[in-house]
Amino acid sequence: AQKIIIDTDPGQDDAVAILLALASPELDVLGLTAVAGNVPLSLTEANARRICELAGRSDLPVHAGCDRPMAGDLVTAEHVHGQTGLDGIALPDPTMPLADGHAVDFIIDTLRREEPGSVTLVPIGPLTNIATAFERAPDIVSRVARVVLMGGAYFEVGNITPAAEFNIYVDPEAAAIVFASGVPLTVASLDVTHRALTSREWVEAMRSLPNRCGPAVAGWTDFFERYDREKYGSLGAPLHDPCAIAWLIRPELFEGREINVEIETEGRFTRGMTVADWWRVTGRDANALFLREVDRDALFALLSDRIATLP
Ligand code: BDR
Ligand code: CA
């Protein structure tokens, strides 16, 4: 199985992504690292533990990481995710403890310990933990198999500013470090995740699964959908973060291009923009597989099959 570390800011769609990963034998989740993003770190790290407990995986190490971006103030998204970050169902406080040690140290130590090229990083929140690890321990960069992230947008442009997607916007300096690192990147952008919209039938099928994770997914996606319905008039909740996990399991469900992507850190109106050279007009070397299309039906069938195997 592919060894991964999921770096996350749960988040309802983060929660579904984590459940998909834990239900997938193709993946060996070495641990979760929490970062500040959708809500402050004290909530994201507790939510990560709640999700592990829901999945019956209180054995997994959950490390708390950076509580603010590399530069500037934290921007959060309670308007999308609710005050808890996981609004939609009531979950008890976690009983499993946080793992000892900072998330950045866990990332560094794991990459130094495991075979070079055997660990994939899957950031589905702002890139602060990953970039901090790369800065603090440059020796680990060449040991990373790949970074498979949710973030950015090109055709769909922005969801937090007109130009920027949330995860990149929260910490553009961190994103710039990761995109310039030379590590192979897969980018699940809004262009692809806005095609991964839940349907009513799928949500109801989740709700009627005879386990606890299925109804949890239904409750989360119902809550999450409300924002996109009011804001964009779209029907269904975009399952952003699960796209990153699904690409690892079934890459053939996705289409994209190997292109150059630069992060705007200075623009007056465009800070946090992923400047994606989709039409290859710059001559700059490709640094990312930028995803744009997904086989929606197959994606949701995969999610259904896997969530059904959980407690
Ligand atoms: C991303 O931002 C967060 O709100 C979601 O969890 C996802 O990672 C989408 O822009
Ligand atoms: Ca997220």
Task: Tell me the number of helical segments per DSSP (H or I, 4 or more residues long).
Answer: 12
Radius of gyration: 18 Å
- Count of beta strands: 10
- Beta-strand portion reads 15-25%
Q: What ions, cofactors and ligands are bound?
A: beta-D-ribofuranose, calcium ion
Rounded average pLDDT: 97
Largest beta sheet: strand ordering: 3-2-1-4-5-6-10-7
Shape: globular
State the helical fraction: 25-40%
Biggest sheet statistics? 8 strands, mixed
Q: Please write the string of helix (H) and strand (E) elements.
A: EHEHEHHEHEHHEHHHHEEEEH
Amino-to-carboxy terminus distance = 21 Å
Low-confidence stretches: none
**Structural class computed from helices and strand pairing:** alpha/beta
Structure explained in plain terms:
By secondary structure, this protein is of the alpha/beta class. Helix content is 37%, strand content 17%. It has twelve helices and ten strands. It has helices at residues 12-22, 41-54, 78-81, 103-113, 128-136, 166-170, 172-179, 190-193, 200-207, 213-232, 240-249, 296-307, and strands at 2-8, 27-34, 62-64, 119-123, 144-150, 185-188, 254-259, 261-263, 274-276, 288-294. The strands form two sheets. The chain has an eight-stranded mixed beta sheet with strand order 3-2-1-4-5-6-10-7, with helices on both faces. The chain has a two-stranded antiparallel sheet with strand order 8-9. Helix 1 runs parallel beside helix 11 (240-249). The radius of gyration is 18 Å and the shape is globular. 52% of the residues are buried. Calcium ion (CA) binds next to loops. Keywords: Glycosidase, Hydrolase. This is Nucleoside hydrolase. Residues 4-300 form the Inosine/uridine-preferring nucleoside hydrolase domain. One of its GO terms (molecular function) is hydrolase activity.
